[in-house]
């Protein structure tokens, strides 16, 4: 978080962090439904074919 205000957006460390985040999100798939109202964001639902959640186990 200190890299951006310090002017290190194009530094090797910041580029490494951005690449790590991008690669960690490659297997992430699904849909999130949101509602935005008066500056607030509410999650209405989410679903993914790769979800680890199993309602039968709850």
From TrEMBL:
Keyword GTP-binding: no
Pfam family, one: Arginosuc_syn_C
Pathway it works in: Amino-acid biosynthesis; L-arginine biosynthesis; L-arginine from L-ornithine and carbamoyl phosphate: step 2/3
Domain of life: Eukaryota
Residue stretches making up the Arginosuccinate synthase C-terminal domain: 2-58
EC number per UniProt: 6.3.4.5
Matches recorded under InterPro entries: Arginosuc_syn_C, Arginosuc_synth, AS_cat/multimer_dom_body
Cellular component annotations (GO), alphabetically ordered: cytoplasm
GO molecular function (one): argininosuccinate synthase activity
The entry's keywords: Amino-acid biosynthesis, Arginine biosynthesis, ATP-binding, Ligase, Nucleotide-binding
GO biological process terms on file: argininosuccinate metabolic process; L-arginine biosynthetic process; urea cycle
The keyword Ligase belongs to this UniProt entry's keyword annotation: yes
Name this protein carries in UniProt: argininosuccinate synthase
Species for this entry: Oxylabes madagascariensis (white-throated Oxylabes)
Upper taxonomic lineage: Eukaryota, Metazoa, Chordata, Craniata, Vertebrata
């Amino acid at each position: 978080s200190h890299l951006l205000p310090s002017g290190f957006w194009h530094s090797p460390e910041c580029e490494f962090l951005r690449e790590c985040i991008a690669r960690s999100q490659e297997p992430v798939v699904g849909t999130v439904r949101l509602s935005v109202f008066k500056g607030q964001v509410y999650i209405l639902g989410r679903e993914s074919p790769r979800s680890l959640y199993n309602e039968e186990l709850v």
